[in-house]
User: What shape does this take?
Amino acid sequence: MTQLNEQAAQGNAAARIPPATPAGDAAQTPAGAPGPSAAPGSAGQPVADYRPVAFPQATGAPARTAPDPAATNGMAVAALVLGIASIPFCWWGIGSLTMVVLAIVFGSLGIRRANEGAPQKNFAVAGLCCGIVGLFAYLIVGIATFGLFLLI
Assistant: This one.
């Protein structure tokens, strides 16, 4: 073993790998040792122990559960979706105006719910802002087209 350590310290990579012995070479097999065709557990070969390992049980930590469905703020999510959709579809006329009004109303209700303890206040604020931007885009398109797209 010390020879291998000395050779490894010298940096000789080929010396670190011991030479392979052919499987059927009888000259290198000791007299009492079983050959490569011997079954495990017979004359001198150890039997592997394959018992299952018992893992320690987790105690004291609470189990994770799914979030409470009532803990979401649906108004905030609806405001965000409608506010984002109202910007690229500002030329849809009455449909766009409906999206804008609903985004502003749902955003306001979502902010009020979030102030009372519901999550996702940032969604409600973003939906309200996108709804206002969609309203301005709707008015600009209406003015630029002389009201052609406002009542479609």
About this structure: The mean pLDDT is 76. The radius of gyration is 38 Å. The CA atoms of residues 33 and 152 lie 94 Å apart. Residues 73-144 form one domain.
